[in-house]
Automatic annotation (TrEMBL), chains A, B:
Higher taxonomy: Bacteria, Bacillati, Bacillota, Clostridia, Peptostreptococcales
Protein name: tRNA pseudouridine synthase A
Family affiliation: Belongs to the tRNA pseudouridine synthase TruA family.
Gene it is expressed from: truA
Superkingdom field: Bacteria
Function in brief: Formation of pseudouridine at positions 38, 39 and 40 in the anticodon stem and loop of transfer RNAs.
Leading EC class: isomerase
Length: 245, 245
C-alpha cells in the first residue's frame, strides 16, 4: 500500500467543516474522499491532522490516505485539481513512509486569525476576516498574548464542549501583525482544545478594546474555569495555517 | 444643493459592471442609486469617475451626487453601510464644492491587476486574481513595462471597441511587486482607453511567459495597430485602485 500525504487549502465558507457527516457531502473530508475514491476505484478514507469547524478555512491542512492506485503523484494531483471544487485545492502531494499518520505525528499546529479593523469592512476580506470597527490597541494585545505563551492549563480558554482528559497545552508563539488595518494573529502550539484559538482571540480582542487589561489574561489562565472563557470569535476569521511534523 | 463625494470599494464578481443598465439592478451604480434615493426621498443620479466592466472590482472608485437631503455625513454613511449589500462599501464620504465632478476633474487613475502565480490556484484569491500556473519572469515584465511609461499613442493597446478621438494617453508609473507568488501590477495614468489596462497586462504576461521580448512592447506601441493588441486579461484580476483629483 502507498501512503500519500497532501497539504490542502480550502475556503471553508460553504462547508459544514472538515469532518465527514452522514448523508452529507458538504464537508471537506467528504469532497476529498469522493474525488479520491472516483480516481482510484477504491473506497478511500483520509486522515486529517484534526478537524476544522464549520466556516473555518485552511491554508495548510494535512491529510494522508492509503491506496494501491499506481498513478504518479503529478498525475493524481492534476486529477484532483480538475475534479475538486475551486474552493478546495491540493497544494502539495507526496508519497511518504507507511508509518506517517497525519494526526498522531503532529508536532505543532499554527492557526491564523484575521481581523479587519477598518471603520467599514473591506469587501475583499469579508469572508475571511472578522470585522471590528473600533480601533484595537495592538500593543496591549501583544502584551496580553505573552501571558499565554508557554505550557499552561487552558481550561479557561476551552469550550465547555471540550472533553479532553488534560487541558494542559503548550503555546510556542503568538505573533500579531498589522498591515493597512488588517490584523493577523498567528498562534503556534503543540495542540489546541475545542474552540481554544477562537476563545484566545476573543480574549485578545477584549484587551484590544480596553474591556480587559493584559494582566486579566494571566488571571483568567490561573482561574482554570471554563465559565470564565471570553466570547468565541467567529469562525470565518480562522484558518488552520500550517501543520509541522 | 449639497454635492457629496464618496469613495466606494466593491467586489465586482456578482455585478454587470459599474454603469446602470435598463431594467436591471445588478450594477454598482444601480445599487448605489437605489439606496441613495430611498434614503433621501429624491431621485438620485450619481456620477462615477468612469465605468468599470462586468466583474471588475474597486478599491477606490469615486462618485458624487447632488442632494437637498440634510442629514449629517456620518449619519448618511451609516445608513448606506446598513442598506448596501456587503460587497459594496462606501469607505469615505464628504461634502465638496458644488463644482466638483467625479469624471471631469480626474487627474490620475491607478488600476491594480493581480496575478496568482502559484502552481495551483490559491482558493482565497480565486475571485480577485488571474491564475497563471507557469512561472512568470518578473524582471522581464518590469523591463517591458518601462517602454509603456510616458506619453504614447496606445492604439495597439486598445480594444477595437474604443471610439475615442485620440488614443494618446500618459502613463505615469507601472509598479510590479510580488509576494508569496501573488503578483500585483499597479498602473497609474491620466486616462485609459477601453480595455487598455487589461491589454497591457495581457502583453506583460506574454513577456513574463517568454512569448514576447520586452523590446516587442516598444514595437507594438510604434505600430499603432489595434489588430496587434495582446489578449485582454480576464476582468476578475482587475481593480480600480485609486482616483486622484
Amino acid at each position: 500500500m502507498r501512503n500519500i500525504k497532501m497539504v490542502v487549502a480550502y475556503d471553508g465558507s460553504r462547508y459544514k467543516g472538515f469532518q465527514r457527516l452522514r448523508d452529507n457531502d458538504m464537508t471537506i473530508q467528504g469532497k476529498l474522499e469522493t474525488v479520491l475514491s472516483k480516481m482510484t476505484g477504491e473506497e478511500i478514507e483520509i486522515i486529517g491532522s484534526g478537524r476544522t469547524d464549520m466556516g473555518v478555512h485552511s491554508h495548510g491542512q494535512v491529510v494522508n490516505f492509503k491506496t494501491k492506485f499506481e498513478d504518479s503523484i503529478p498525475k493524481m494531483q492534476r486529477y484532483l485539481y480538475e475534479y475538486l471544487p475551486e474552493d478546495i485545492v491540493v497544494k502539495e502531494m507526496e508519497e511518504v513512509d507507511e508509518r506517517f499518520h497525519s494526526r498522531y505525528n503532529v508536532k505543532t499546529k499554527t492557526y491564523l486569525y484575521k481581523i479587519d479593523n477598518n471603520k467599514f469592512h473591506d469587501p475583499f476580506t469579508r469572508k475571511y476576516a472578522l470585522h471590528i470597527n473600533k480601533k484595537l490597541n495592538l500593543e496591549l494585545m501583544i502584551e496580553a498574548s505573552k501571558y499565554l505563551v508557554g505550557e499552561h492549563d487552558f481550561t479557561s480558554f476551552a469550550s465547555s464542549k471540550s472533553k479532553k482528559k488534560s487541558n494542559i497545552r503548550e503555546i510556542y508563539a503568538i505573533n500579531i501583525k498589522e498591515n493597512k488595518n488588517l490584523i493577523e494573529i498567528y498562534i503556534e502550539g503543540n495542540g489546541f482544545l475545542y474552540n481554544m484559538v477562537r476563545i484566545i482571540v476573543g480574549a485578545l480582542i477584549e484587551v484590544g478594546l480596553g474591556k480587559k487589561k493584559p494582566i486579566d489574561i494571566k488571571e483568567m489562565l490561573e482561574l482554570k474555569d471554563r465559565t470564565k472563557a471570553s466570547e468565541t470569535a467567529l469562525a470565518k476569521g480562522l484558518s488552520l495555517y500550517k501543520v509541522k511534523y
